[in-house]
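Encode chain A's predicted structure.
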Amino acid sequence: MATGQPLFGVWDYVVLVLVLLISSSIGVYYRFTGGKQKTMQEYLLADKNMSIIPVAFSLMASFMSAITLLGVSSENYTFGIQFIVINISYGIFTPVAAYLYLPVFFKLQATSAYEYLERRFGKASRLAASLSYSLQMTLYMGVVLYAPALALEALTGISKVTAILSVGLVCTFYSTIGGMKAVLMTDVFQSILMFAAVFSVIIYAVIDKGSFANIWEIAQLGNRTELLNFNPDPTERHSWFSLIIGGGITFLSLYAVNQTQVQRYLTVKDLKTAQKALWLNWPILTCLSLSTSFSGLAIYSKYYDCDPVSAKVINNVDQLMPLYVVDTMGNIPGLSGLFVAGIFSASLSTVSASLNSLAAVTVEDYYKPLYKYLFKKTISERKVAVQTKLIALFFGFVCLAVAFLAQFLGGVLQASLTIFGVVGGPLLALFSLGMFTTTANEKGALTGLLCGISLALWMAFGNPKPPLPALPVTVEGCPDFFPNATEPHLTRIVSDEKEYFWLYRVSYLYNGVFGLLATYIVGYVISFLINIIKGHDIHNLEPNLFIPSIARKLEKMVDIPLNMKQWSESEEDVRSKCISNGKY
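Encoded structure for chain A:
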């Protein structure tokens, strides 16, 4: 056990700087090769010529970076291994994203996913959704910047303020110069570092304890191996129901309709290649999730009788993994630096991709339409490419500010999943209303979106909330030189659940589910009522804006190709032909 605040050695700093230089050099390389990021298609869509493997790794690394390494390990240390059930939801919902949502976006071929909403509903829907996405990703990137700052504080003694500024400025610099090709290729390198960091923890723990069985036995004695919680009660924080349903909705909101991921799908040549990349992402994602979960038990096998948080060795449970690394492997020159480099570079990749996507949304959804409205002409490709990079720089500084607020959101894992659920669930419902029904209209969809986000925000941030049901920890085994160590205690606080409003007791994983249901039900009902009053003609709907099964039905009703843009005739001419053929 460390006798004081762990510090980096010289070789650790050398390795950290070297790895960050390699990551940055990939961005610099793509900045000065190929088309040199001078066009929007190259900067935002990598010229649509990427291969499956880097895209698959990038899909994983987008939302499973430092937050996974720190958050999932501390989750399993603190609450047990029940969280691994969420991986089942990834397998269940991968085909849903691949075969229902992806075909629609590939037919659209738009840089901004929210262009779909304008074509299906109208400009107001596009603006509302893109603003919601911008809020979601700005908050998320704040958490992503905060996570490595925790690690840096735990390992080097540098304050969180200094750490956030250091990581944030490096991320912002890299994001501004690097295009999508650099992001995707860097993700592969950084993913390898992430796996190396996690496996180093597991391998050392197995050597230290003798076997996997011994690690599992210690976890079992600490009540951290429960996997069969089938309680359907929505107030149960983690059960098979909350993890599969809530985790599945979160997965769909990220991998089916999120701009960051849709933009990655569009970097490959065709739909089948994108679907293969998504399927390949599943085992990569699951492997990282399961190994990181077991690393939490590996960490518990060392600290089961001396909890570092209770002993005041570290300030936050999300610092457990970096503490373990420096505490057990700190005598190996450079290994601690490699571990932190993995966290840094993973965050670098996530932030750069997110800034790239935020820039795409801002340019496509706000800037271009406003420019055309004010100057009555379209902005040049070269000019908008430069301004896109400036917009990415702006969002980098905004996310820096948000990072300082992330410490008030609780653990990094729950904070990130809460952010995704609050905005992601209602946005998923908005896209689903458009793709899965011919009934939905703009007024109904927007009313539903407002209700869904309001409900999800109320659930997520309404107070007071009951304390989290953490499992017992002790400081009985801590040496005497920890003067601040407390008496053995249980962190599970027994309280009367009835004291708290029911909605505030619902698992955070259901925030997105409730938001989705509210958006979809309210949106559908309001749309249905409006259609009764004003009438509704589904023959005006464009088939390629719907999932394949509905698109085929609409094609049969009106004898027109999937992409009406291919027609040279006006819509009125097309309709006249359809009427004459008895198809209208």
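Residues 418 and 508 are 6 Å apart (CA to CA).
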